[in-house]
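User: Structure with 5-amino-5-deoxy-1-O-phosphono-D-mannitol, tokens only please.
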Amino acid sequence: DKGGYKHFMAKEIAEQPVVMTEVLGHYVKSDGIQFPNQDIDFKSINRLTMVACGTAYYACFVAKYWFEQLAGLPVEIDVASEFRYREPPITSGTAALFVSQSGETADTLAALRYCAGKADKIIAVVNVPESSIARESDVVLPILAGVEVGVASTKAFTNQLMTLAVLALEAAHQRGRLTDAELGDYLENLRSLPGILNTALGIETRCEEISLKLAEARDILFLGRGRMYPLALEGALKLKEISYIHAEAYASGELKHGPIALVDQHVPVIVIAPRDDLFDKTVSNMQEVMARGGRVLLVTDQKGAEEAGDGVWETLIMPEVDAFFAPILYAVPAQMLAYYTAVAKGTDVDQPRNLAKSVTVE
Ligand code: M6R
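Assistant:
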């Protein structure tokens, strides 16, 4: 049932504030973080290996920043299809964490089986608690996003991020990197996210307008820095998946090492950059693009829009959010720009060609 929406994807985008609230309520109680019936000891762990595919891999990529910065835990991330055949050494003190909406992705499951017996702990972050990945893990953290029908993952991504954010905070707290008061502040920020994301859904009309122009492009570039780099990757994946427009994402700083050669007036460049401590760097990358005739769509907040200066092609203004958890909020423009571009092109949004919801063969 599409609940009055034109596509499941639109419905699932709109459901995000509700399912985010649900998953927070499950893991965050009035007296702090709880992982019901699960035993996770981050003090005995010295390395975290996170493995997944597609959008779930990008959730791992965002979480890498959180775990490293908050918990001081070295994190390795990899796509499952590479990880499983590389046969990397799993050193003592390693926890292996697998993220999967379906819990049935063949490569992710194979990577998990490779780690079984080698890693100190196998952790699964899944949407389907009775899935194979969940059954074969020591610790299972459901993301409680509800059934996701659209092939393009949306609410599962934001709830994967919510779950991983809580886990990173727990790791930081256990490892003595956060005091009770500091943890309380971070949790307060997390609690405000569903409401802010609800406000962010208001960018819909602007996304629809801008997407009419994006739909004419043959190639689109996405740029992001730091915690926003994985969001650029996610935006490019969403766009190519459902609109069939060729899209690539780069870390902003990599631009001048090659990709800038692609820039001309025909290639829209989508820059995902809230006004954070790296904003100035991104602005200078943006200016390099504009100096070569590139059309920049800047996705930022009010302050960022004011500081960006002239010459920007389009600006999409997001609500203010704590910089640390901004990647969760900026999933919305990544999803909506892809959605409305696909709608403008008339493609099959929920069942894009050549793709399956669950990739159970390698
Ligand atoms: O079920 P999983 O989370 O393991 O699936 C992983 C990917 O196949 C999936 O995220 C895919 O990239 C999505 N279609 C992206 O929207």
